[in-house]
Please model this.
Amino acid sequence: MEYEYLVHRREADVHNRCCGGWVWCIRDICGIICAILTWLLILYAEFVVMYVMLLPSPYPIYSTVNSLIFQTFAFLAFASHLRTMFTDPGAVPKGNATKEMIQQMGFREGQVIFKCPKCCSIKPERAHHCSVCQRCIRKMDHHCPWVNNCVGENNQKYFVLFTFYIAVISVHALFLSVNQFVICIRHEWKECTYYSPPATVVFLLFLIFEALLFAIFTAVMLGTQMQAIWNDETVCIDEMEVKC
Model:
């Protein structure tokens, strides 16, 4: 297939790359802020779960088991986020829509091909141009500011895992928060936490709000992604194309 040449072709294209071209990265201030905010929210959940609820818990087995579960899925969520963020989603080489390149790719005479007028690249089937990445992305689903990257052919599996792990730790945090209220009331707020009752209530309420919000958001996103994968389709709408 002619477009396979685009996938395997290695060239000195350093656009949207850092560390000498080895790492894919998008220099978008909004995306960077959202990614950092995601890390901070995960760290906040870590703080409340570990230092407000589990470590001070009077039940050592309950504390140990839930700590292992939460830490495992939190680590997997963080790792999946980094893989999604720093993986090339499937960018088509920029500026390859030249007559010489078209001849090298072996297109038949009279064959219709599509050229992106924005990044001057030959667009494979189901490729879309991202205005943030300023590239055409193979099987682009959408650009997600929370991972500061497009979700495309090469990193969609990491994005699906990220949404799954975030949904799991969100539900787990909700369970732990509600249970913590029960434990603290039963012990009359003694020996259930290192912090005062007002501070503990504030920590737990904010965690419940965060966990509930992200549980709903990631569950919906996960369902959308699984449906798209099952139907072998993408939700992105084609932008303007030019026939060559």
User: Anything to note?
Assistant: The two ends are 18 Å apart (CA to CA). The chain has six helices and nine strands. Residues 4-243 form one domain. Residues 1-12, 237-244 have pLDDT under 50 and may be disordered.
